[in-house]
Amino acid sequence: VFQFIIAGLLSTMLGYIYLLYTSQREKEKLIEQLKIESLESRYSALMNHINPHFFFNALNGVSALVRKNNNEKTLDYVDKLSDIFRYTIKSDSKTLVTLSEELTYVEAFRHVMEVRFANKFQIDVDVKQESQTLLLPVLSLLPLLENAVLHGYAVPEGACPVYVRVWHEDGHVHMVVEDRG
Questions:
Q1: Percentage of residues in the chain having pLDDT higher than 90
Q2: Which of 168, 174, 82 lies closest to 131 in space, CA to CA?
Q3: Does the pTM of the predicted model rise above 0.70?
Q4: Can you tell me whether residue 119 is helix, strand or coil?
Q5: CA quadruple 122, 123, 126, 128: dihedral, nearest 10
Q6: CA dist., res. 151 & res. 11, Å (int)
Q7: Of the spans 25-29, 130-134, 161-165, which averages the highest pLDDT?
């Protein structure tokens, strides 16, 4: 009888430990999910902040080109803007894109900024071919480039090159955007 009582207590204790363990795992999963949702929410808020700012600057660029009566340049500018806005709208349904897709967007952004800053804007992109298929969050480079434009062009004289380097190492993607600002 004593052995049955001990076996019953051990079984109860092991069952209780198992319940504690599974409960702890569920709490950890919930915490991880909340962290992910928090990051997604912050990312969404950032995107909502960037889009209006960029949109109004883009409209100012169209306005300036129309005043100059440079129809060919205006059409090209509007085409690049539409590429940018199309990519931005499509990005709402995506979370990850290839670096190659992101760099196509950077090219359109470069063109728009060159027009906006009268060809004083330069982007030097250094990305190895094998890195083109890396997955990264959609619109990762825009906030960095916008920041470089904001701070790099605060210095009024001369051209301001922006350097973009992207590589992967030890399972991490590294992005560096540098300017002189």
A1: 16
A2: 168
A3: no
A4: coil
A5: -120
A6: 66
A7: 25-29
